[in-house]
Design brief:
Layout lengths: L1 E5 L4 H10 L3 E5 L10 H10 L5 E6 L4 H10 L4 E4 L5 H10 L4 E8 L17 E6 L26 E3 L8 H7 L4 E4 L4 E3 L2 E2 L1 H12 L1
Parallel strand pairs: 1-2, 1-8, 2-3, 3-4, 4-5, 5-6, 6-7, 7-8
Antiparallel strand pairs: 9-10
Helix pairs in contact: 1-6
The protein binds the ligand O=C(O)c1ccccc1N[C@@H]1O[C@H](COP(=O)(O)O)[C@@H](O)[C@H]1O.
The site of the ligand O=C(O)c1ccccc1N[C@@H]1O[C@H](COP(=O)(O)O)[C@@H](O)[C@H]1O has 26 residues, from strand 2, strand 6 and strand 8.
């Protein structure tokens, strides 16, 4: 199973998280986020972090130009689109970046919104489900209604996000079987400052 830890801002924390067994590290490229890293910071982080893990840049309603420029300046292996990006935008980005993983995040207000995911099945490599929040785009700590996701079996890989923590991860994975999980605020001391004890506990919990 893929394990993505998002909101990395510090090299040593990123290295430690990769050593614990994360398969992907996420970097927030959304300027309004308290976890934001600038393109220069992102370049510096990626140069110093192990290239054995996927390096995912998280964008929300950014222009294609900004995303393409950021990818060309760094060695991101994937781009996560966490805003209201249309299927057409995803197709365009995939055409421009054929070797980069395109992840479309859907913020699920009600399970009816899962129907919306169908429009992306042929446009992106991976889907990600996050919880809806009225004023925040992500990193909210809010969980999804896992019970209701049991029937979500898209034809492409998908990651579960939204309020996952070392204490609730096994409950979530007992109810649903995503291809991967994505955690941010649930393994932090404060936004952008990862709590390595919580990350360690996460990997211990995943082994039980
Ligand atoms: O983390 C952020 O600040 C953020 C800002 C804008 C878009 C996405 C963001 N993070 C994503 O939020 C989810 C879940 O976070 P949490 O575990 O509930 O704290 C995750 O996919 C992050 O990539």
């Amino acid at each position: 199973m893929r394990i993505k830890i998002c909101g990395i801002t510090q090299i040593e924390q990123g290295k430690a998280i990769a050593d614990f067994g994360a398969t992907a590290l996420g970097f927030i490229c959304v300027p309004t986020s308290p976890r934001y890293v600038s393109p220069n910071q992102l370049k510096m982080l990626i140069e110093r972090l192990p290239n054995t893990v996927n390096q995912i840049g998280v964008f929300a309603n950014a222009s294609a130009d900004l995303i393409l420029q950021t990818v060309s300046q760094t060695h991101l292996t994937g781009v996560q689109l966490h805003g209201d990006e249309s299927p057409e935008f995803c197709v365009f980005l995939k055409q421009c970046l054929p070797n980069i993983e395109i992840i479309k995040a859907l913020r699920i207000k009600t399970t009816d919104a899962l129907v919306e995911s169908q429009a992306y099945f042929n446009c992106v490599d991976t889907l990600l489900l996050d919880a809806y929040h009225p004023s925040m785009l992500g990193g909210t700590g809010k969980t999804l209604d896992w019970d209701r996701l049991a029937s979500f079996t898209p034809p492409i890989p998908w990651l579960l996000a939204g309020g996952l923590t070392p204490d609730n991860i096994n409950e979530a994975l007992g109810l649903i079987s995503p291809d991967g999980i994505d955690l941010s605020s649930g393994v932090e001391r404060s936004p952008g400052d990862k709590d390595l004890a919580k990350v360690k506990k996460l990997f211990q919990q995943l082994e039980t």
